[in-house]
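for the writeup, i need someone to sanity check this before i put it in the appendix. the sequnce is what the collaborator sent (i think, or maybe the updated version? ugh). structure was predicted straight from it, no edits. if anything looks off just tell me and ill rerun, i have time this weekend
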Amino acid sequence: GAPSSTPTGLTGHSPARQDASFIGRAFPRNASARGRLVAGFPELLRPLRGSLIATSSVATDEQRLQAALVSTTADSPEQVLRGYRVRLSARGMQEQAAPAAAGSVAAAFVRGPSTITVTVTREGAWTSYSVYGALQAGKA
């Protein structure tokens, strides 16, 4: 496919902090939930405004935090991807192509050993999306 353009010069965003960790000082406990965010879910991966949360989870081995989210929204797949592109590029993450199942679109975001994948699927009037992050502790 053709290379996708990435917005530059986004207003209202401070320059990316390459030394910023994606994870707070303490790891959350391993947990999963339906219909809400689990305690300690990373701010960076939170659902977009107006989304309905289906499931969320966090798991850690004290060096990496894995976080997963499944949500639905009335926004288009393009709006969902743009929302995460803006948020993640502001944190210095670089977008890469990602494989997706038929009917879905996915984007991967990488910075150092940390990766985040966003997959979106249009289902009638709704867009279902999943966010999966494997975040390195310390200076990611």
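Residues 1-20 have pLDDT under 50 and may be disordered. Helices lie at 77-89.
thx in advance!!
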